[in-house]
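Bench log, entry 3. Co-assembly request; chain sequences pasted below exactly as received.
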Amino acid sequence: MALTGLEIYKQLPKKNCGECGVPTCLAFAMALASGKAALDTCPHVTAAAREALDSASAPPIKAIKFGNGSVMGDENVLFRHDKTFYHPTTLLIRVSDALSDDELSQKLEEIKGLEFDRVGLHYSLDGVAVVNESGDAARFEKVAGIVAANTEKSLLLLSSDPTALKAALVPLASRKPLIGEATEENYEAIVNLAKENSVPVIIKAEGLDALNDLVVKAQALDYKEFVLDAGSRNPVETLANLTQFRRLSIKKKFRPFGYPVIAYTSKTEPLDEIMEASVYVSKYASAVVINTSAKAHVLPLMTLRQNLYTDPQKPIQVEPVLHSVGDVNENSPFYITTNFSLTYYSVEGEVEASKIPSYILPIDTDGTSVLTAYAAGKFEPEKIVDAMNKSGIADKITNKTVIIPGYVAVISGKLAELSGFKVVVGPRESSGILSFTKTL
Amino acid sequence: MSVALVKERYTSKVGEVVLGATSEQGGTRTSTVSVGGDSTLPFLHFEGQMQNRPVIAMEVNDTVPEWNEAIKSQFGDVLGNPGAWAKKCVDEFGADLIYLKLNGADPEGVNRSPEDCTRIVKEVLAAVGVPLIVVGCDDDEKNNEIMAAIAEAATGENLLLGLAEQDNYKSIAAAAMVHKHTLIARSPLDINICKQLNILINEMGLPLSKIVIDPMIGGLGFGIEYAYSIMERARLGALANDKMLSMPMICTVGYESNRCKEANASAEEFPGWGDLKDRGVLWEAMTASAMLQVGASILVMRNPAAVRLVQKNIADLMNK
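Structure output for the full assembly:
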């Protein structure tokens, strides 16, 4: 939460010297509050005031970057309807260094396949968590190296043994992996290792109280690139902890918890595990480590993540150009709808199910649904004809017939007149398309 | 140093609704099901009571459904027999409730008579002891006809009847009121219409404790985020003492998730999406999981394998 002008004013020298270019300190404070000025232009501000103002203006949850473009944290709200969630949960697949070389290469092969295309969007897995379970520092280093060589994705190196962690990290430092875990026993060694290599580090303790103590001690090492883990490994406790992290950092500006948080699944059955992970994706985990890497398991989870991290104010849109479904010909039906992704893909799905090759032209309605678009004057006959002309549909089909959504039956006459096409009123809902096509 | 936890103080809670009626209560159910009553956001046991565990209603149709084989094959030979189908859902799959959808009433389909529909409701009531949810087909006029007959024939059973909608609620609300049933009020992903409809029904004389909200949801990947936020807002509204948003919510998870291409397309068609079996199960189960996180009290589900996953998920989250 940003400070108000008056709160900032209290920290300023109140000399009204005008050297910052603004006549009074109060005016300067107002400019600072609205982001139109920088504190650096004030030559008289004290170090204490500077620190107070800097920390007050810092985001409630620090953004932590690692690996290949992964960003965690930097969220501002508890509920997506309050504004939006910004940084989708980083999903990492766990790879144990206790796997045999064969199992390892099989796992890496599976991980490579975790790229998905659906409804015009591309989903990619974020990274791999290499976990030291072998108890052997050399094996951990070797497996981390193999994983790194086989994927360009972000890496998490996880060991409680500082020696093993160092051995694995040093050759891979340029990949900027996230490392962990710094615990009560080893935090000095591991936080310093992270600091020396400029990589973020997971701070782990059992429970929020112990974690608070440990974060304070770790911060005293003059390093703040942290990701937090309160140690819980079951759904209900983890949900409670994740909720507290988010509330304390955002509502209370509780600085020790102003970092991203990581959660781990505990279920052994892959489907149960994905259900568990879905709780953490919904409720506040900045990163989740899962075991299963089967496409059929990861796709639903990535879909949920994508859905919840869309901006509620910015609907997803499809390109408003002529789309063809199936092997179209000059007799194909021609549908129009809007470019709101959900509307379009609902129509496309039903048209596809009809097994009749068809054209669909989404009209650019700024991503609104049919009724909303029509009410806002964005689904007018003039505009539709314009889009039809641009699409060249008249040269593609000989039947010269356009199928419009049932909700806008009222535009039929005007549209027919302007386009010269025969206008057929389709069903109101896309779910009616299948039975509608039987009447064509 | 101990951390002072942030516990919200809510001024109210979600209303509690009882479904079904035992013989002492004028019905024939062997037990009733209570939903709602929660005084916290979902599963945050540190700040309030999750009065009643969310429940699963399994979908039964009066006609053989056009579902994908991966789901149908789990039911064996009961799909043509609503009573046997319902019994299997309860006995084998642990359904808390049965959601009987009378698709066959549709004048464009089988066009069952009100008497025929009533007979099927009676059959299902006889086959299972759990409370029943009964909804009609896609034809408003026909629904009003059959629901009046069903409500009367099942007087005292405290069925959960659906669907009352903004432009068609009077007839079914009256039937529920006269014959002592509970009502589903459905609004199309719109919190204002949701409130408005509850007000209208309440003004007719049906108490708020006899209404369940169906906010309409989208399946995973197809608008689930809209339902997610609307339900989260409604839940917060209920906790902040907005009585017209305080009813428990029912979500048609099975129907919406299984309309999605991802729940039906084979791996041959879409090799990039992995095997259909687990994908289809998760598509439905994860739709349910997201709705649970924003306050669903009744999940209407279809795929027995998904039901099993969600039952475990609920048990985990109710484990204080």
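The mean pLDDT of chain A is 93. Residues 160 and 400 of chain A are 70 Å apart (CA to CA).
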